[in-house]
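Hello Y.,

Per our agreement to keep a running log of every chain we model this quarter, I'm adding this entry. I've kept the format consistent with earlier entries: sequence first, then predicted structure.
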Amino acid sequence: APTRQDPYDSVAVEKALDFVAKVHGVPGKANMPAWARTNPVGRGVFTLSSFTMDRFNWLFNRLTSGEKQQVMAAARAVGVMVLLGGVGSLPFLDEINRLLRKLFGVDFKLEARKWVEEKARDYGAPEDAIADYIFHGAPAGAGINVSNAMRVQVPIASALLQGEGALEAVSGPLGGVVLKIAKAGEMAAKGEGDKALESLAPEAVATALRAKRLSEEGMTTSGGKLILDRDPKTGEIGPVKLDPSERAVKSLGFNPLEASKRMEKADTRIALKQFWTERKDQALARVNALLLTGKQEDRQTANNLVLKFNARLAESQARGLVPPITRVKPYK
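Predicted structure for the entry above:
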């Protein structure tokens, strides 16, 4: 207990330091891997993104150690991630899915969930609940999603694939503080004082303010676009807002399951629409180039390109999001 000579409880302080060290790792050059200690870039990354780098480095070292005990420790850690966060928290899975979606216009996580729901339906099981448990873990039963919080992120790459700017991705939390201040100034200049306060407030306060805003104004995608959906009661299309129970969950610092699923679906739709719109523009450019020649064989080739693209679009996950190519006229 604290005394006049020692105003702090040394035992409590030691326990607090030990807890922080176990969660965040002990900072310092001595605890960095060799490659990071020997160059300023590595030291900078570990300094700016210490938590992400420590978790990634811990898992990488154990998986590549070649020692059974170390590999089992990594396996137990991954097992806890899956239990609490579902397969959505598996290391590297989200990054791989986002990368493949950018390259091929297919969201494999969406396909996997659809397959799980179909199998659950075949066996007469509650498809949505089964899929939620598999993809979001045990807390899904309480309407909470902690997948992102449990997941081991790939330094820099995860942030870039999630749509963050290069500066924010490289600079980590410290850079994020600077960007939050800049964002607050921008919001204040627009007369949006509540959003400026939300950006500057400590996280516990900002979380409550964010929950209030999402329940009143509606949810947005990671890119800041308002999420619109059809209201199941009125049938009208409008902003997707947090209900009172979801607002309470969000205020406590947790992600409401249904709200996070809606946001994830909206992000997926935007990414798929962007990919297939770009492919459509590329196809139209080729078609117009062929039509401008005036040759019959080029016109037939252009027609085949249109048919081929429309067939691929009809079989894709973007069907209904991007209209097919219809009547094409060459540019003049």
